[in-house]
Amino acid sequence: MQIVIDSANVESIRSLNEYFPIDGVTTNPSIIVKEKRDFLPLLREIRAVIGNEKDLFVQVIAEKAEDIVKEAHYICNEVTGSILIKVPVTTEGIKAIKLLKEEGIRTLATTVYTPMSALIAAKAGAEYVAPYVNRIDNLTGNGVEVVSNITRIFSEHNLPCKVLAASFKNVQQLQNVFLSGAHGITAPPELIKGMITHPSVEIDVNQFKEEWLNQFGNEGHTLLSTQ
């Protein structure tokens, strides 16, 4: 199960990468634009934060397959480490995924709304597909069910492609996707932090500390202080 940060905010990425078991970072043109910074320096700074081993997903903006391939080459040449190219599931995008697969360039098929588009992308050679859970829900579909159906198809037909679910509005959706069999999720920092957030935790911790201090006093605020 992979947990990937869906953000280009360097400080948020730095904090999460320090404290959480993070597997990588996904970006897209909208996320990049929000940071109001030059494209390549931002990607390089993200890479410096997460290291070369963790996956960094970068999306193309070209529409024609040949231009998508050129952009993929540019990104891979300019940014070090483990790079995956995000390619929208269009006719031209599927062609580009096939071409990039032949060259050994790893891809993630994005803008996935149906199991059939995920299947085609996987057959074309995508290493990951990213179904848009909340966006599917907003179109009166069932995002978690779509994720479940994709993972079932991949499993039954022995397709090596992984499902990295995207587009979430709450932690409950994350949990439902985990239970559906997805191989991972990419979510904004606040939702990843929310995975361990519960009001009872703070209550319990404060109770444990109060009872300890009542016994050992302020000088015994840690276990080592009692030695």
Structure explained in plain terms:
By secondary structure, the protein is an alpha/beta fold. The chain has 2 domains: 2-196, TIM Barrel; 198-227, no CATH class. Helices cover 52% and strands 16% of the residues. The protein has 11 helices and 8 strands. The chain has helices at residues 10-19, 29-34, 39-50, 65-78, 91-103, 115-124, 133-138, 143-156, 171-180, 189-194, 199-216, and strands at residues 2-6, 24-26, 55-59, 83-88, 107-112, 128-131, 162-165, 184-187. Strands 1-2-3-4-5-6-7-8 form an 8-stranded parallel beta barrel, surrounded by 6 helices. Helix 4 links the parallel strand 3 and strand 4 (83-88). Helix 4 packs across helix 5 (91-103). The mean pLDDT is 95.
Provide a brief overview of the structure.
This protein has 227 residues and is of the alpha/beta class.
Question: What is the straight-line distance between the termini?
Answer: 40 Å
Largest sheet: 8 strands, parallel, barrel
N-to-C order of helices and strands: EHEHHEHEHEHEHHEHEHH
- Mind telling me the C-alpha Rg? 21 Å
**Number of H- or I-type helical stretches:** 11
- CATH architecture of the largest domain, please? Alpha-Beta Barrel
Low-confidence stretches: none
